[in-house]
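This part of the workshop introduces the protein records we will be handling. Backbone structure tokens are a discrete shorthand for how the chain folds in space. Once this layout is familiar, the rest of the handout is easier to follow. The record below serves as our worked example for the rest of this section.
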Amino acid sequence: MTDARTHIAAPENKPGYSLALKIAAQLFSVVFHPLFIPTYVIAFLLRFHPSYFSGFSDGSKLMLLLTTILNTAFFPAFSVLIMKGLGFISSILLPTRQDRIGPYLAAMIFYFWAARVFFKFVPQLSPELPSFMTGVFITTIFALLANIFFKISMHAIGCGGLIGIFIVVMNSNTMLMTWPLALAILVTGMVCTARFVVSNHTQKEIYSGLLVGLACQLIAALIIL
């Protein structure tokens, strides 16, 4: 009998791909891993937004970026490594829905703390920043719930959130967002295509991930802004 924990159903009629395409797809999957998306967003806004961080010293900006990296990338990734070492998950690649439950719960804790930091400890931040981090936290809740039924794509969720926050910033009319939003859509298309190439995700898992990531950012914006 096949172990339900380790069995992964491959999509039907999946075409073969060249080695070069698989390498490129894997590279995109790593560079735009969902754990890195919050860092990319904050780094982009720190560098390009004309008003969100006015009055912040270079040291304060660096501390904000480091806080984002620690709470949204380092600690969740470290938690996954600990779970693998303790045998709670079968692989750090999280190939099954069962493997993803613990990492989702850990990420939820760290994302909640990051949102709290943005709200309470950096009160001079523009509200779009706490809204973004709250959206990231809400996303983990919906992703965990979706994971009960199917293996929703975490990469697609991250890309949906990227598009979502850029739409929120564009709607605030504080920065010209034409090229950043176009770039986010391009990256999203390439990352989702990469997941079709190197993962066993179905179209439903990819597209629903995009929808969840986008919707959660818009929901957070409606609540907070």
Observations:
- DSSP finds eight helices and no strands in the chain.
- The mean pLDDT is 90.
- The radius of gyration is 18 Å.
